[in-house]
Each structure stands twice: as structure tokens, then as C-alpha cells.
Amino acid sequence: MLEISHLSVSYGQKPILKDVSLSALAGEVLAIIGPNGAGKSTLIKAASGVLPVESGKVTVAAQNISGLPSSQRARMIAVVPQARSLPFAFTVYQAVLLGRTPYIDWLGHPKPHDHHQVIQALELPHTIELSDRRIGELSGGEQQRVLLARAIAQETPVLLLDEPTTHLDLKHQSSFLNLIRKLAVMQKLAVMMVVHDLNLGSLYADRVALIHNGKVYAMGTPAEVLNEANLLNVYQVPVHIMKHPDYNAPLILPDGLEPHLVPYNHQSGLNKST
Fold first, then answer.
1. What angle do CA 84, 86, 87 make, to 5 degrees?
2. Nearest residue to 78 via CA among 2, 186, 154, 24
3. Which residues are registered as beta bridge partners of 59?
4. Pairwise CA distance, residues 128 & 111, whole Å
């Protein structure tokens, strides 16, 4: 499992994360939510070991990742970053093969097993048909799926994702997040993902951590965290919570539309007093 203990991170003199403690268990998806500037992306960077921490530690299967060589960390934690960070001149196959870098010898010669893992990784997010295309020819959503394939190819017990559905349409959001849950459940991965859409976090995560001002404001199941009081206090906007008719998960509807701005075809549903 991934465990983050009393983690603090600063940029210069500015504290970003303050004594953050949370964990993602093998086989579960932990969603990280919170307003812009709360420290969510910083948490992903610190948890992956690419950002120095001021205090605290990050462990995978009880092993502290601090001070480990990058190649060893890459066998433990795979990251799907927020920004597209793929070499545009590479083919999709070459880009996903980069996920095998921690396992390839110093001569840079992939073994048959490496190629086998790349093919499997390309098939899972339905990117196998893109194998021969250049990264620069792909849409943002296609590149996002290639980033997931590269992370899958790493064969790590921990998967971190920073706003993975940003460039995906509704169809690919659903297939992408269903695949994340499948990887967590079937391969016993510990998954931690940052999401802006609270309803996606509610539907696809086992637990939710609400980050506010660099601290864990609330953590628990979606039903425990995603309530009107917590969301009003953190996001400063009133919301209406209802239960999903099929999955019993909370559905969050913003309740901040000013009456005089309500679209004409919605106005019949307003209370006459407004």
C-alpha cells in the first residue's frame, strides 16, 4: 500500500502541504479532491518522489521511497501526469515502451517480456490501434490514454493520476475510470487520483480525501466526505446532495445559480417566491 505520513512541502517560503497523512490500500481507489491551489498536484509530485519534502515520508509496502534511485522508484510508483509530457516525434509504441525503462539493461535493449508488456498495456486503454502513429498527431484525449498505457507498462503496485480525465469526452471518461477501477481490483493496485469533478470521485473512488489549504480537511467514504457542510465550507458555494439512483453514491449539484440568470426553459421549476 501507499502511505503518506505527516508530509509537509513548501515552495520557497510558501507552505503548500502541511502535515498531510493519508493512505491508499492495495485494491482501492483514493480520490483527492479540493479547490484550485489546495495542493493536490503537489501531493502527487511529492508522493511520486520527484518533489523534495520538507518533513514526513512516503512509503510503499513499508519501504521509504526517500533517497531511492529514480529507477527503483519507477518500479514502485507509476504516474499519469496532468500535463501531456510525451515526445511528439515518438510513435505511440515507442512512448509506451518508455514505461519499461526501469527494467531495461544499461545497453537499452528491450527483452521479449518488455515488448509483451507494452502490447498488453496498449490493449487495456484501447490504444493498440494507435501504435504506429506519432504522438504529435494525436488528440489530447488520445495522448491521455497513451500516458495511462505507459504507466501500466511499468508494472508498479502504486498508480498515481493527476486529473486524468481532463482531456477526455464523456465516453472515454467512463471507459478510462472503469479501467482504473479494474486495475485496482484485479491487479491489487493502490490508486490515488486527483479529480476536479466531485461526481466522478463519488462514483469511482472507494474513499475520498478533501484537501483544503494544504491540509486534509476530511477523509472517508464518498458518503462521509461529500456532504453539504463540508463542500460549502471548502468550496464556498451551496450544493444540493442527492443519492445516485443505481449506486447509492452521493451526487453533487451546485445550487448557486442566481435566479435572474436561470435559462428561460428552466424557470417553470423555480419557486414562485423567486
1. 140
2. 154
3. 3, 64
4. 19
**Distances from the Cα of 120 to the Cα of 81, 88, 110, 126, 182, angstroms:** 21, 22, 15, 10, 14
List, for residues 206-257, the tens digit of each pLDDT value: 999 999 999 999 999 999 999 999 999 999 999 999 999 899 899 999 887 7
Specify the pLDDT at position 135: 93
Q: Name 102's Cβ contacts closer than 8 Å, sequence gap at least 6.
A: 71, 72, 74, 75, 154
Yes or no: say if 26 and 65 are a contact pair by the CB < 8 Å rule: no
Gap between the Cα atoms of 51 and 47, Å rounded: 8
Cα end-to-end distance, the chain, whole Å: 51
Beta bridge partners of 78: 159
- Cell 463540508, residue located: 230
Q: Full-prediction pTM beyond 0.85?
A: yes
> pLDDT tens for residues 39-69?
999 999 999 998 989 999 999 988 999 888 9
- Cell 495542493 identifies what position? 39
Contact 145, 127 (CB under 8 A): yes
Task: Write out the three cell numbers for 15.
Answer: 507552505
Nearest-angstrom CA–CA distance, 155 and 44? 18
How far is C-alpha 178 from the chain's CA centre?
Answer: 13
